[in-house]
Amino acid sequence: MGDLYWHIEGYDNLNKIYEKKVKAAYFSHKQIQALLKALAAKAGLNFNEIVGAYQKKGTKTANELLSVQKSGPYAIYSCGDNPRFHRTSCWQRRITFCSSRRHETPQSFL
């Protein structure tokens, strides 16, 4: 059927600010989650917000700004509020299947 890829996208409101497709074999699920956290932190958090995201829950300045949510039957991971980043899975052939959506493969992915 083809190779499995992770399709990573970043949005600021409705504007796409990042898009990358990488082979799934190159990343574990933990690495993908860490990558989403890093992208969300780089794109929209200040130093204090990043520190708060790594503090123990319930402490004075702790926050959930870099929590990674998993949703849907195809394990869509997302991180961040605005900007936000998410990862879906894709099978690469002439036609790409991403999660439950079907669309033509952009030339930048080939």
Provide keyphrases for this structure.
disordered C terminus; globular; about 110 residues
Summary?
With 110 residues, the chain is α+β, with helices and mostly antiparallel strands.
Describe this protein's structure:
This protein has 110 residues and is α+β, with helices and mostly antiparallel strands. Helix content is 22%, strand content 41%. The chain has one domain. It contains two helices and seven strands. Strands 1, 2, 3, 4, 5, 6 and 7 form a seven-stranded antiparallel beta sheet that branches. It is globular. Residues 99-110 have low confidence and may be disordered.
Rg result = 15 Å
Category from helices, strands and their pairing = alpha+beta
Shape: globular
- Range of helix content: 10-25%
Number of strands: 7
Question: Regions with pLDDT < 50 over 5+ consecutive residues?
Answer: 99-110
Number of helices: 2
Note the main sheet.
7 strands, antiparallel
Order of helices and strands: EEHHEEEEE
Number of spatially distinct domains: 1
CA(first)-CA(last) distance: 16 Å
Q: Per DSSP, what share of the residues sits in E-state strands of 2 or more residues?
A: 35-45%
Describe how the helices and strands are arranged.
Layout: E1 3-12, E2 15-23, H1 29-44, H2 47-54, E3 68-71, E4 76-80, E5 84-92, E6 95-98, E7 101-104
Antiparallel strand pairs: 1-2, 1-5, 3-4, 4-5, 5-6, 6-7
